Amino acid sequence: xxxxxxxxxxxxxxxxxxxxxxxxxxxxxxxxxxxxxxxxxxxxxxxxxxxxxxxxxxxxxxxxxxxxxxxxxxxxxxxxxxxxxxxxxxxxxxxxxxxxxxxxxxxxxxxxxxxxxxxxxxxxxxxxxxxxxxxxxxxxxxxxxxxxxxxxxxxxxxxxxxxxxxxxxxxxxxxxxxxxxxxxxxxxxxxxxxxxxxxxxxxxxxxxxxxxxxxxxxxxxxxxxxxxxxxx
Length: 232
Hints:
Elements: H1 23-38, H2 53-111, H3 125-200, H4 204-209, H5 220-223, H6 225-230
Helix pairs in contact: 1-3, 2-3
């Protein structure tokens, strides 16, 4: 029986998801937005609004938190991915064994003589046909037993591969949910910051009309697991 060596399981704790800003973040955002707005930053007449220093910090933190979830998912699924690769290779090999054994069984049946023996001259045709079927079954029995054993092992390996695939997908679903949560928090924080900045900006009305929210987009791996797994 083919056995896949299973690496030791290492499952670190997932990153923490915060639903609200901390008090220092809230106070720092309000202070920076007020000072930046009073200074007339960003300029409204520029073709593209530049990010303030504090906005860049918010976006960078959001990207960092999303990357932590991606790294966590990589670490958690690393062992399962390695075992799944071995299981897939074993499934391909076992499927080839099943096909070869069935081919050998067919050849054994085809090579079994079907002619009536001289001693069977007075034996009815139905009896002779039955004897030839028994001979064919006996000739193919070894190959068919080998095919049956390989098929049973293949079924077990395919079940294990499906279990591993679901484990991997579950971990990435958890990571995607975490990434969505931290990105939503970063966008809410940036929207609150921008609202405060526009309130103090000399041309806040014109500046508010140019606001495009949300600013922080989710990476491709959050919306498409196959895209993430294919990129590795």
